[in-house]
Design brief:
The protein has about 600 residues and is an all-alpha fold. Helix content is about 60%, strand content about 0%. The chain has four domains: about 45 residues, no CATH class; about 80 residues; about 110 residues, no CATH class; about 300 residues, no CATH class.
């Protein structure tokens, strides 16, 4: 039997949950031949010594909210928002009445996080109501559509003729709104039109669900409503198409214009409070600019090592031309994944359970999806971007450049181990209730911290690999700068694209994809800020605890992973065992008093 198996079995009996430090790619048997005993953890270590007294309450909150949303199912209707506000306010009162002094460290963390989450949810409701008021002229019929579905939830017999009249009224309101917008001399607001078109999709699904509940089961309903429904549904679709094509500027067969929906200074203040960021947007931009300056200095060193003087752009261009042949990318990615895991294990930097090494999978990204995600994604699986045979020649060359060997070397571990895959693996097994507090500052901050840390530990041996890592690190700085400036209303999407091309070295198509992903997708306004700021928080915490000798590196990283998903300031309280006072508010100046 191979040395690997013998060492692994010995490690298991010794109570270890890590694989021995040897080559994971070539030093172990194939997965089907491995002893399944390797996957059994140390059962004595599964129950944390200090659990949160709030865990069941947090889980109850999540389940009750899901139930409430099943009852009030029309997204962002007036009734849904009212009922959610009442729900959150009732939870606030119940939390206030709890005997806080009796809670332990972990219970206090959850109490503070629940209060923070409830304040944020109430703030989001106020934001949504304000936005509905702003686009009222686009959507005067929205409440009538919502009322049809919400009345159905009362389980009373539908008045079929009255329903048909309501459908006629809704269709007329839709047509009137479109006619009014088409006749306006000044172009309507594109952002409001984009927002309205998105909501029309939800309303169309709501109307369809309402109609199909009755159609075919109630003969009178079908007789009265079949044609009015068809005409109303068609009017909704035509109105959405009108908004997208005539006002937003989308064209059939072309990529959707990047519009986005800036949340402004007030919106950023709410989101920053939720993320426990005691800094203003201007201060966060200043931190990013300092990190940017570090990257610029390192770029010059790398360019010199590559024999290109101080020309960072020439160094970047060189690495973009280094890619594997079609069909070889999966093997390249797998090799890099095992290389990083080996690096971590040999240095005993954190605990990597054997199952976590084996249970990630790989899929290939479609050509269509690569328009918004030109680089690969990861988590429980790694989704690999690479040219497909459906792309034209220019698209293939662009995808090869974006997914070159050295860019991949810097981010495979970000997506897998010790990054998102390992992070998610632990989150599924420890303090699962804290997924309520999901934040990119923890999720992306953890993965980028490892980009910082592995750079410092010399993981990137060649100048070309360091160039690949610097591209991403520079990009993380740029994300803070362009996203905050956009949401403050200072920059347009085009200015954001130009910034990524000129200052980071993006190709035009990858810069466009990144900006589209940031503003037209489902990402929260501070998502792009979370990468760098979360990593800096962890870097500061590492300096406080590991560099001073208060904790070992392995205990530090394991404690973070086992604590669950939450803002890094609460991670700090968890790792240090700090008993937070009841009136605690975010105050950790991790980047200095005046960045």
């Amino acid at each position: 039997m191979k040395l690997f198996i013998r060492l692994a079995v010995l490690a298991l009996f010794a109570g270890s949950t890590s694989l021995p430090a040897e080559d994971l790619r070539h030093g172990q048997p194939k997965q089907a031949q491995r002893p399944t005993a390797l996957y059994v953890p140390d059962l004595n270590a599964l129950v944390p010594p200090i659990a949160s007294e709030m865990r069941e309450l947090v889980e109850r909150f999540k389940i009750d909210r899901e139930s409430l949303l099943r009852v009030y199912s029309v997204p962002n209707s007036s009734l849904q928002l009212r009922r959610l506000r009442e729900f959150y306010q009732s939870w606030q009162a119940a939390l206030d009445a709890m005997p806080y002094a009796a809670l332990g460290t972990e219970g206090r963390i959850d109490w503070q996080l629940m209060q923070l989450q409830l304040r944020y949810e109430l703030g989001l409701i106020a934001r949504t109501e304000k936005r509905h008021t702003e686009m009222a002229s686009f959507m005067g019929f929205a409440d009538d559509i919502a009322a049809l579905q919400e009345t159905r939830r009362e389980f009373e017999h539908v008045a079929s003729a009255s329903a048909a009249a309501t459908l006629g009224k809704i269709r007329q309101a839709i047509e009137d709104a479109q006619r009014k917008l088409a006749g306006e001399v000044s172009p309507p607001n594109k952002i409001l039109a984009y927002r309205a078109a998105s909501r029309l999709g939800d309303l169309s699904k709501t109307l369809k669900d309402w109609y199909e509940f009755y159609d075919g089961y109630d003969p009178q309903f079908s007789w009265w409503n079949r044609e009015p429904y068809k005409k109303t549904a068609t009017a909704l679709d035509e109105y959405a198409k009108f908004l997208r094509e005539k006002i937003v500027g989308a064209k059939t067969g072309e990529d959707e214009p990047i519009i986005g929906d800036p949340i402004g200074a007030e919106g950023l203040a709410l989101d920053l409070e939720h993320e426990m960021m005691p800094y203003t947007p201007a201060e966060l931009i200043a931190v990013a600019e300092k990190e940017f300056a570090w990257c610029e200095a390192e770029w010059k060193k790398v360019a010199r090592d590559m024999g290109l003087g101080d020309d960072w752009q020439a160094a970047l261009e060189k690495v973009k031309h280094d890619s594997v042949a079609p069909g070889q990318q999966p093997a390249l990615i797998a090799g890099m994944a095992y290389e990083a895991a080996n690096f971590i294990i040999k240095r005993d930097l954190l605990t990597i359970p054997p199952l976590a090494i084996d249970d990630w999978t790989m899929t290939m990204m479609s050509a269509e999806r690569q328009k918004t995600n030109p680089f690969f994604l990861g988590g429980d699986r790694i989704i690999v971007s690479f040219p497909t045979d459906t792309m034209d020649q220019a698209e293939k060359l662009n995808s090869l450049r974006a997914n070159n060997t050295h860019f991949c070397h810097a981010t495979v571990f970000h997506e897998l181990i010790p990054g998102h895959h390992l992070q998610g693996w632990y989150a599924d097994r420890f303090n699962q209730h804290r997924d309520l507090y999901y934040t990119p500052f923890y999720v992306e901050g953890w993965a980028l911290w490892w980009e910082f840390h592995l750079w410092d530990l010399g993981f990137h041996q060649t100048a070309e690999d360091r160039a690949g890592a610097l591209f991403w690190r520079t990009h993380r700085c740029a994300r803070i700068i362009f996203s905050l400036n956009f949401h403050l209303g200072r920059w347009t999407p085009q200015q954001c694209i130009d910034f990524l091309v000129e200052k980071v070295g993006h190709d035009r198509h990858t810069a466009t994809g990144e900006v589209r992903r940031s503003f037209n997708g489902d990402y929260s306004p501070l998502y792009q800020v979370g990468y760098m700021m979360g990593a800096i928080q962890l870097r500061t915490l590492y300096a406080e605890l590991v560099k001073t000798g208060k904790m070992t590196e392995k205990n530090f990283h394991d404690s973070i992973l086992k604590g669950g998903i939450m803002p890094i300031e609460m991670v700090r309280a968890h790792v240090t065992g700090t008993a937070l006072p009841r009136d605690y508010r975010s105050s950790w100046k991790f980047a200095g008093e005046q960045p």
